[in-house]
Amino acid sequence: MRRRTSIALLALTPLFGVACSGDDVATTTSTTVALEVGNPDPPLPIDINTIPYKPGDLVALGDVKIQIGVPTTSEADGFSFDVTVTSGALEPFTIAPSMFLVYTLDGKSYIPEAGSATEQFGEYTLQSEEVYQGVFSVKIPTGSEPVMFLADLSPIGDRYFPGAWIFDPNFTPETQE
Q: pLDDT tens digit string along 96-145?
């Protein structure tokens, strides 16, 4: 779990990287499969938070508050989790599915799609103080592990900021020495 958390933290940097070390002094030959880590596509916003939020955190990103639930995986709906968007704006604003992405370890990103029991998340106009709730659902054809959720509402205007959530609810950032 520690390696997964470290790799997920790397997902928040503009360039991904993997460092491997070990004390292999064995006389037998072993084959290891390295995780494929890619550059985020599209690149992460420059002003994104450097320490990711966790599922359950209620986060103010300017004139909007966002909270995500703990993800689940099923054959019918793929990878999914609940998302709540609360308007703090005085004027209505429109969100779009393209403002919400799931990034996988290989750097690919996916927008929400309709599932067998859910509609596509995100195409909605919020009024002042309105709460929008939905299920973010995505199928990941590459089989790469989902590591991060990005909500980038900055295209709406100056009072909206991007934010990133890591999917590991037990994540704690390592302190720099």
A: 999 999 999 999 999 998 765 667 888 899 999 999 999 999 989 888 89
Nearest Cα neighbor of 82 from 102, 56, 53 is 56
How many CB atoms are closer than 10 A to CB 173? 11
Distance CA 6, CA 1 (A): 9
Tokens of 54: 């966790």
pLDDT tens for 68-92 read: 999 998 877 689 999 999 999 999 9
pTM of the model: 0.75
Check the CA dihedral 4-97-69-117 and report its sign: negative
Q: Sign of the CA dihedral 5, 11, 15, 16?
A: positive
Token pair of 21, please?
Answer: 């070390």
Please return the burial class of 4, using the count of CB atoms within 10 Å of its CB with bins 0-12, 13-18 and 19+: middle
